[in-house]
Amino acid sequence: MVYEVFTAGDTKAGVQTIAFVLPNDEKVREEKGTKKVFLKNAIEAKFKKILLPISERVLDAEDHKKVSFYAYFNETILHEICHALGSNFVSLPDGSRVSVNKALKEHYSAIEESKADITGMHSIPLLVDRGWLTQERAAELYTTYVAGIFRSIRFGANEAHGLGFLMQFNFLREKQAILYDPAAQKLKINWEKIHDGIKELAVALLTIEGKGSYEEAAAFINTYGRMDEATSSMIEKLKDIPVDIEPIFIY
Q1: Which of 10-24, 178-192, 227-241 has the lowest mean pLDDT?
Q2: pLDDT given for residue 143 in this prediction
Q3: Of 89, 118, 149, 251, which sits with the fewest C-beta atoms within 10 Å of its C-beta?
Q4: Contact at 8 Å (CB) between 98 and 26?
Q5: Count of H helices and E strands in the chain?
Q6: CA distance 169 to 172
Q7: Domain boundaries in the chain?
């Protein structure tokens, strides 16, 4: 964990980074592993200025009460850790061995970001079983995750994180793990189905990457990467909330 004190150039352009795992080179990752860095002040700024106001508007009142910075910070940690899980290289039917990135081509980023999100959430029951998380903290992680879906969807379906979260949202709604009240235009977690829905999605995405299947990745994105009227309507309610932060460094 570090505090961000200055950014410039490409590091300040576009969506502001709150954490990263490096290196990106699959061969180096396979041989040497990765380093994970978390920018605490950037994470806190996005939570206070963006995620918390979003949660109040999109979540059922009882679920909104469970949203916390503790959960958001730890969800970010789980996301970055889970980037390093799974296969770096796959063997294709023609006998060639290539990186998952090259196998999935233009679909890789959205599938990978979605995989990191959902496998991070899938690890929560294990952390509870090991005594590293209480049931109360686990509930905070789930509600904060659902609110965070709308923080990232607003980046747009042309951006990997935005598309990744849109796919997760549509999949979990299809499995009734997330319930939508059209009258109130609010979301509520279905606590009876959220764990199974997350597990099923984690399996689907890990399988796509494990097989290196370009066709299956394309089909998954085509099925779940579409924005319906209800989602668009909820996003419209958030138009006065900043999409991202713009750090100003004062010396």
Answers
A1: 10-24
A2: 97
A3: 251
A4: no
A5: 13, 6
A6: 5
A7: 52-236
